[in-house]
Structure formats: C-alpha cells, structure tokens
Design brief:
The structure holds 2 protein chains of 2 kinds. Chain A is of the alpha/beta class. Chain A has 17 helices and 13 strands. About 5% of the residues of chain A have low confidence. Chain B is mainly alpha-helical. Chain B has a domain of about 240 residues: MetI-like fold (Orthogonal Bundle), CATH 1.10.3720. Chain B contains 17 helices and 2 strands. Chain B has a two-stranded antiparallel ribbon with strand order 1-2. Chain B starts with a helix and ends with a helix. The mean pLDDT of chain B is about 90. The chains are: A alpha/beta, B mainly alpha. At the A-B interface, helix 1, helix 3, helix 16 and helix 17 of A face helix 2, helix 4 and helix 16 of B.
Chain lengths: ~400, ~350
C-alpha cells in the first residue's frame, strides 16, 4: 500500500514539474496566433504569410493554431485569462470582444492605415476606437450558371440588372429547363442584401438600431415580398430543398441557375466543380438602387499580452502592404482589405471576378447589436415561414421588430 | 481479517490494534477510489457549484475571470427573466421546454418499447445467428453520435434515400424537406381537417408564458421528428442489452410453471416477463429520461436549434446563451432549471413505476 501511495505521489510530482518546465525560460519570443479555418487553401495561405514574417523578423516565432469550433474555443480562452497574442475576430463578434476588454487598440500601430477601405475599418471601430485591421473581406455577388442560361436562351446577367430582370430571367429558366432559377438560403446573411437594395438601413446616423422601423418597414416588406413572389412562382428554392448543405454546393450541383454568395465560393467551385461554367455579376439593383453585404475578419492583438510590440509587428505585416500583396496574389479567394491591392487581386484572379471588389467601398456589413442571437433566430425562422407561405411578410417583420425591441429594452 | 487476529499462528511484531487496522483499511480504500473521486470532484462537483454561482451573476463568458470587474451579482434576476418576466428570454426558454417535452414524450416510450421487444426476440432459443442480431442492434449505440447525425443528414436530405424510398412506394408523394421543416406534426394533422389557427378562434392566440396556446399544441416539428427517430434508433441498442441481461436472469422454472399451467406465449410475456422486468424498466426509463432531457449533440450537428427554433432544446439553449449570446449567467441559470426539471421528473417517475420495482 505504501508503495502504491509513493508511486502515485512521485507520478503526480513528475507531471507538475514537466508542466512547469514547458513554460520556463525561452530565448526567443513565441507568439500564439489563433485562427478559424475554412479549409486547406486558407491554412496554406496563412502559413506562407507567417513564414515570410518569420524570415523578416528573426527572433520571433509564430505558432499557428486553427480550431474548428473557433469562437467557442477562443471564448473559453478569454474567460481563463490565458488567451493567444494574436487572433481572428469575425465581424459579428467585434463589439462583444471590444466591450469585454480583451482587445488592444490598433490606433497608431499600423503602417498606412488610410489605405484600408474606410467601410471595413469602420466595421472594427467600436465607440470611436479602431481595434483591429481587417485581414481580408468578401462581398456577395450573383453567381450564374452559363449552361442553364444558354439552355433556356436567356441572356447572361449584367451589372445593371434590377429585381425585375432577376425575376423574369429566373422565370424563363424555370419554365424552359425545369431547374429553379435561384437557390438561396433563408438566412438574414443573404436576405439583408435585398433589404439594403430596397433602401433599408440597419443603423441610423447616430448608430441606433433601426431595422424595420418607419420607412425601413416598407423596405423590409418589399425585400421579403420579392422572395415570397419568386417562391410562389416556383423560381426560388433553398439549399435544403435540393439536398445541399449550402448555396455553393446547390449551385455547383446545377440544382439552380443562380445563387448569391461571396468570394469564398470562387475556390470552392473551381476545386469541387471544375467543369462548371459560371460567372459572377454584382447583385441586381432594387427599388433603392444597388447594395450588397460584406463579410470580414480582423486580426486582433490581445489586451493581456506579454509581447504587444511583437504581436503588432505580426499583425501589421499580415494586414499591411506586404501581407495584402500576398493575400491578393497567392490568397485563397477573399480580397485584401487595402484599396491599393485591389488591382493586384483582380490581376491574380482574373477580370471576370471584378464583381467581388467593385462594390467594396459601399457594401454593408450585416452586424447585429450585441446579444441579438434571438433576433437572428427569429428573423431567419420568419424568412423561412414566409417562403413556406405560413406567414405574411408584414407579420414576419413586425414579429422580428418586436423581438429586437425586447432585446434593446433588456 | 478478524479471524487472523485471534489466530495463535500470528505473532505480531508490534501491537496492532483494531483501530490501527481500521485506519489502515480506510486509507487503502481512499487510495483506491482517489482517482475516480478526483475526477468527480474536478469535473462534476466544482463545475456544479461554479454553475450555481455564475447563475447569480451577469458574467458574459468573455471577460477574463482574472479581472475584478468581470461580473456583478444580480441575485435571482436571471431566473426571473427565464421563468416569470414576459419577454424574449421567457419565450425562448419555454419554446425550449415545449420542444424538449415533445421530444421526451416521443423518444422515451418508443425506445423503451422497442428495446424490450428486440431484447425478447434476440433472447429466443429458436433464433439463428443471435450474435449477429445482437451486434447489429447494439452497433448504433457505440458509434459516435456526430457520425450518425451526419449519416442521417445524408439519408434524410431532400433527394436522399428516405425520400427516394417513399417515392418508389407512393408515386404521388411530395418531397418532405426533413432537415428544414418547422411545421409541427400535430398542426399538420389538424390541417388535414382544415383546422388552422385562424379557424379555431381567438382562444388559440392567448399567450401562456409568452407562447401562443396554438403553438403549445404544435407537436414536434418535422425536423425534430427526424432527430427523434435518430435518437430512438441509436439508444435502442443500449436499452436492449440491459433488458437482455435482465431477461437472462429470469429463472427458467417460472416459465416452465407457467407452461404447465397452460399459459400461451402472449400470456407468459404479459404476466411473467413484463412484471419480472419491472426493476429493469425503471432503470431503462430513468436513464432514457435523463438522456432525452439533455439532448444536445444531434441538434448541434443537424439543425442548430432551427428551423424557426423548433429544435431548440433546453440543453442547446444553455449552449446558445453561453456561447453565441454571451450571457453565461443566463446559461448557468437555464442549466440549473434543467437540473431541477430532470430531478423532478425522475422522482415522479420513481413514484409511478419505481416503488413496486424496488421492493
């Protein structure tokens, strides 16, 4: 028995010492960089950029960790107080993280910050403080399948399409080929683009949430009515209905002639459906003109950080002129967040993808106020129910607005 | 032990008293349970206390706990919002309660019933390839729930095998979007007779706990029904094995006596097998109930609580409030309420089935 206790004790001590030893003295600085990953292509792109940084900055090593449940993992790290030096922050999370005090501010720490698209820099500015530079961005475009358009004898979409053009082309294709014109997920990350095209706003000039209030109510109803009427005409389907996990997959399978997706779809379609003949144009204009959504991620530096200088050096490299050039030339799809590198990206990708950068300056980031998960769930559910015909557009928006009001009153 | 003490053959080198031995034994005992005890304390007792503690705070789950201003005490505010105060928190919580109750009512009786039937079948002497069937039925239980969920998503996708199969049997069948259909099955059934919210009158729009009466009686949504089928299928195996072990413990003489008395197979099953399995049924139902109330992973993989919140269960709501809504305090309060619900149901169940079973 004594022997057993002795052995257990020794083992415990050994574990404690080995854990302690691992964090003892290091002769060079090692930065922890955490990121979410969409796949191999994105991992490779980041690894190349980090390798270039390490080469330019001897004495700084960077350890990259990609985690699949990224936000959950990062949040538990924040809670413990032991979180990485540098990490991705998705646009939806910026306000929460900033107000929780886990982000260092980016003011005065970046090379040539005016070059970053102001619309993107604004996304990561909370209460007047700029927290983190965007690493890249994607905007929504209208992807179309050339073979299905040819089969139906419909002309390809153009940059000056309107909602009516979208409806009539979708109708002609559905009638001629039996394949639905448009596949789109019943999700506010797509639908808000139509809301914006109808003249809707998310925030007013004072930064207050005004979705669905006043004139915005009509805009929201119009945008939903477009989807409802296309649904009624049989020209709009959701990915689930055609057995796909998301729009890109449904479009790639040829389950519909058009879809609405962002830059990430480029590499996916090229890799997964190399034979698909497709093109992309800006989203059609609504009653209030053009409008699209932008999705971006920034690289933030942690507030509790042993190496703030080295961390900012890394962030400045990855999002600065050099990193942007690499994102443009060897990246995996999303465009660099610096206006000066837009042409490089087009050159590397091809002129035919210009829809993905042209609207960059005035695309809207669909960011909800902090704690609006219930609103997101409600509106997504309501959009689905409008499509199913079990709710009218007016009811759907009224309900969503009242949920938003409840949340704001809390 | 005590015999050896009195044995004349033992000549102790030093005097060992009874008390010394007891202490020695206690120490050895603790030594043996120490690993399990440590794990229990670290991963169960401490988190349980921590969750109770945080349910009284407004911690957002992000601000490092190492900071002084990470959270403030808000007393029972979180519980009040969930249970009493009209509003979005109450609506979400009771939507989750509604969904979970339909889920439990559907899953627990079904899986218990089929597990018993399967156990009786694979226990028959005349059955050939018994081992094959036992393995086949048990297999889903030991497979990862994530893998099974993915396979079910594949099977139930709109052009998946299930829809194709239904097509081949019923030519007029209209594809069901299993993975994304928020319509309640009771609503669908009533709809067949033309009964809708509009047609039943105003009472249906009365709200109880922020949810319309009409919505309370929706039944599980089509997507939830699919998740229920999945879970019944995976859990049956475990329950079947438990029943099988119990069946093999029933002495053969009882059956022989019954046969001598002229009982037929159905009578034997109803009056001998089922009553003798009562303690097992109690166990199976209790374990099933607890598992069903805590359903999470399949929903996390398949539906994330959607469509239209119809697969939002209490356990998923805990996760969503803590990690997507950044209300860790609220999440902890929800978890505490879930604990009370499970505890109450288990006690209730013990009252109903248990008392005779335990005798």
């Amino acid at each position: 028995m004594r022997k057993f206790l002795l052995v257990t004790g020794v083992l415990c001590l050994a574990v404690v010492f080995s854990l302690g030893g691992a964090v003892l003295a290091q002769d060079e600085v090692t930065l922890q960089l955490w990121g979410a990953s969409s796949g191999e292509a994105e991992n490779r792109a980041l690894e190349e950029q980090v390798a270039a940084f390490e080469e330019a900055n001897p004495g700084i090593k960077v350890e990259i960790t990609f985690s699949p449940e990224y936000e959950t993992t990062l949040q538990t790290a924040f809670a413990s107080g032991e979180y990485p030096n540098v990490f991705y922050v998705p646009q939806a999370r910026i306000a929460e993280y900033a107000s929780s005090g886990v982000l260092d501010t980016a003011e005065g720490k970046l090379t040539d910050p005016e070059d970053i698209y102001p619309s993107l820099a604004e996304v990561f500015t909370v209460d007047g403080t700029f927290y983190c530079p965007p690493k890249d961005f994607s905007i929504l475009g209208l992807e179309f399948n050339r073979a299905l358009f040819d089969e139906a004898g419909v002309e390809y979409p153009t940059a000056d399409w309107t909602w009516e053009d979208l409806q009539s082309a979708a109708q002609a294709i559905t009638d001629a080929t039996g394949t639905p014109g448009l596949v789109i997920s019943a999700d506010l990350d797509r639908w808000m683009a139509f809301y914006v095209q109808a003249g809707g706003e998310l925030y007013n000039e004072d930064g207050e949430w005004v979705f669905g209030e006043g004139d915005n109510f009509d805009a929201a109803v119009q945008a939903l009515e477009l989807w409802r009427s296309m649904r009624e005409a049989g020209t709009l389907v959701t990915p689930a209905e055609v057995g796909a996990g998301w729009n890109g997959e449904a479009f790639g399978n040829g389950a519909a002639a058009m879809t609405v997706e962002g830059n990430w779809v480029i590499q996916f379609l090229l890799d997964t459906y190399p034979d698909l003949d497709w093109g992309v144009v800006p989203l059609p204009a609504g009653p209030a003109g053009e409008g699209t959504l932008t999705f971006t991620v920034c690289l933030a530096v942690g507030a509790d950080n042993a190496y703030p200088e080295e961390s900012w050096a890394l962030v400045d490299f990855l999002t600065g002129p050099e990193g942007s050039r690499m994102t443009a030339e060897t990246g995996f799809g999303p465009a660099p967040a610096r206006a000066s590198t837009a042409d490089l990206w087009l050159e590397a990708r091809g002129e035919e993808y210009s829809a993905f950068v042209d609207a960059a300056a005035d695309a809207v980031a669909p960011i909800l106020p902090v704690g609006f998960t219930a609103f997101r769930d409600t509106l997504n559910g309501n959009i689905q129910q409008v499509i199913d015909g079990s709710m009218t557009p007016e009811e759907a928006i009224e309900d969503a607005v009242s949920v938003a009001q409840d949340l704001l009153d809390e | 032990m005590s015999e050896s003490l009195t044995s004349p053959l033992v000549t102790p080198q030093r005097v060992t008293t009874q008390a010394d031995r007891r202490r020695q034994e206690a120490l050895t005992g603790f030594g043996f349970i120490a690993p399990a005890l440590t794990i229990l304390i670290v991963f169960l007792v401490i988190p349980l206390i921590a969750a109770g503690y945080f349910s009284l705070t407004d911690w957002n789950g992000i601000t490092p706990l190492t900071r002084e201003d990470a959270y403030q005490f808000v007393g029972l505010r979180n519980y009040e919002r969930l249970l009493i105060e009209d509003g979005i928190r109450q609506e979400r919580f009771f939507t989750a309660v509604k969904n979970t109750v339909y889920y439990v009512l559907g899953v627990v009786p079904t899986q218990t019933f089929f597990a018993l039937i399967l156990a009786v079948i694979v226990n028959q002497r005349w059955l050939r390839a018994k081992d094959f069937f036992r393995t086949a039925f048990y297999f889903p239980s030991i497979t990862s729930s994530v893998v099974i969920s993915l396979i079910f998503m594949f099977l139930f996708s709109s052009n998946g095998l299930v829809n194709q199969f239904l097509h081949s049997i019923f030519p007029g069948y209209r594809d069901v979007t299993w993975l994304n259909d928020p319509n309640g099955i009771i609503h669908n059934f009533l709809g067949l007779f033309g009964i809708t919210r509009a047609s039943v009158g105003d009472w249906a729009s009365t709200e109880i706990a922020s949810i319309r009466l009409w919505d309370w009686i929706s039944g599980p949504s089509v997507t939830m029904l699919m998740i229920m089928m999945l879970n019944v299928w995976t859990t049956i195996g475990t329950m079947m094995v438990i029943y099988l072990a119990a069946l093999q413990n029933i002495p053969g003489q009882v059956y022989e006596a019954a046969v001598v008395d002229g009982a037929n197979a159905i009578q034997i099953f109803r009056h001998i097998t089922v009553p003798l399995l009562r303690p097992t049924t109690f166990f199976v139902v209790t374990v099933g109930l607890i598992g069903a109330f805590q359903v999470f992973d399949q929903i996390f993989v398949i539906s994330n609580g959607g469509p239209a919140n119809t697969t939002l269960t209490i356990a998923y709501l805990v996760y969503a409030s803590g990690f997507t809504d950044n209300r860790m305090g609220q999440a902890a309060a929800t978890a505490a309420v879930l604990f009370v619900i499970i505890f109450t149901f288990t006690l209730l169940q013990r009252r109903i089935v248990g008392e005779q079973a335990i005798e």
